[in-house]
Amino acid sequence: MKSAADFIDRYARYVFPLPAVLAIVVLIVAPVLTNFVLSTYDYFVGGRPIFIGVENYTRAFGDARVWNGIRNTFYFTFTAVPLQLLLGLGIAVLFNREFFGRPLARTIILLPMVATPVAIALIWALMFNPSLGVLNYFLESLGLERSLWVAQRSLAIPSLVLVDTWQWSPMIALILLAALQGVPIEHYEAARIDGASGWQSFWHITLPGIRSAIVVALILRSVDALKTFDIIYVITEGGPGIASETLNVLAFKTGFQFFHAGYAATLLIFLMTIVLAIAYLLNIVRRRT
Amino acid sequence: MSGSSATTSRAPADDAGRRARRAKTVRTVGTYLLILAVLVVMLFPFYWMILTSLRTQVDNVSRVPVWIFTPTLENYQNVIARNNFLEFTWNSFVIAALSTGIGLLLGLPAAYSIARFKQEGLALAILVARLTPYITYLVPWYLAFRALGLIDTYVALTLTHLIVGMPLIIWIMISFFENVPQELEESAFVDGASRIGAFVRIILPLSTPGIVAASILAFIFSWNQFLFSLVLSGPNTRPVPVAVFNFISYGQIDFGGLGAAAVLITLPVVVLTLVIQRWIVTGLTMGAVKG
Description:
Helix content of chain A: over 70%
Order of helices and strands of chain A: HHHEEHHHHHHHHHHHH
Oligomer: heterodimer
Distance between the termini of chain B: 64 Å
CATH architecture of the largest domain in chain B: Orthogonal Bundle
Structural class of chain B: mainly alpha
Distance between the termini of chain A: 52 Å
Radius of gyration of chain A: 24 Å
Number of domains of chain B: 2
CATH class of the largest domain in chain B: Mainly Alpha
CATH architecture of chain A: Orthogonal Bundle
Helix content of chain B: over 70%
Largest sheet of chain B: none
Number of strands of chain B: 0
């Protein structure tokens, strides 16, 4: 008994993290490795696996639906994230002032990002409804034309971007708000004495002061946007047709609707590579700033 | 003479002062209006969710939105009575509680070790696990759980939800444990305490607020999890998000029922959020913002 305690004391650095590391190896590392093996097989769930080498990969490279998925993934991510950065920055600057009810306002903007995504997606789906939805009612009240929203191919992704932006601009806002509060107030005072305008001090003091926070927000948000699943699957299931089918949704359908496990694993390796490569690239940017 | 010159020189200054004050008022009003606009946009979908849940189907499918009406609780009664909503809620609760409990059991010692022994590599591995798309694990999991006959069991759902909660718990607790003075445990060692003894009796009690925040956050994330449950749950274990998603898959849409279900799933999350709000952002940003 005594020796067991001694053993743990001596090897605490290995014993303490061991259970968590085992869980990660079994639940994360093993599945990722399995995907690499699976991707070399023609395998339908319940069927007989046939080794086909790199055929899944060559097929994926020539598969128009895969390219559509990759295009949609990037279209969604690189419209949503810059929009959220702009709005998030705006909200952060706005919320950085003292105003009545600020703690309550901060709590309110937390709600979109913590609320259950399925519930949010359903409510937005109701609001998007072309004939009964409240969004079209607003458009009409403003004298604008009704829209088909997610029911129109060309508007499906922009509409989903709208939902994602509503949901996640507050996260960027709160990250940047924390950073804004770290910019020394003396810098602004010095700038004012030098006769700098509001814009000039924003450009030359605020932005440089929160640059690294902006990059962190961009990394987190880009990575999460690339793998958005819940709102897309619930609101459009990738439709109309495949107009809003991202790589994530396509891999899901391939695996769990067509049960083509080998091909799904190949697509998942694509997705994982894209996500980790972008995280890695953005992290290099972060180190430079 | 000197008096009149003072008045004439003061008048423009007064004027400028008034103009400056007026400009300031305009700016303040503008700021408040903008803040109000942000809040209205953020709240509107929730407001609409609640309205939908309290309206009759006739009002809900009206072409012009019905803003004023006599609220009805019928939708809630229907959802709870007809759709086994309590059963789904229980499933969600069991899965979230079990995965959070196990997440603490595995995550707390790991976080302590990372904090105390500066295991940056391990911290990085957990971050990479957080960045990797969850769906990457799902195909192999599905095949494994299918082979083991574990589809539609709490075991499969708890284990997979563990991957949502445990990294969060570890990430939040690292910064908590880093702030516990090392001298405290060293004096315990001098008194003959073992590492585990010091961890359980000294470190953990000092970190209770962090543990509470991390647990609640892990619970919320499991509660909200949709993808894993969509694939791995079934009639015996279906949690609320999947059950609610299924409402829309079957035939005619009951708007009020959807609204009521959406309110019922969201309500516990909102309440828990209010309890630990300053930790929400820390958790969501994996520590990029300190609470």
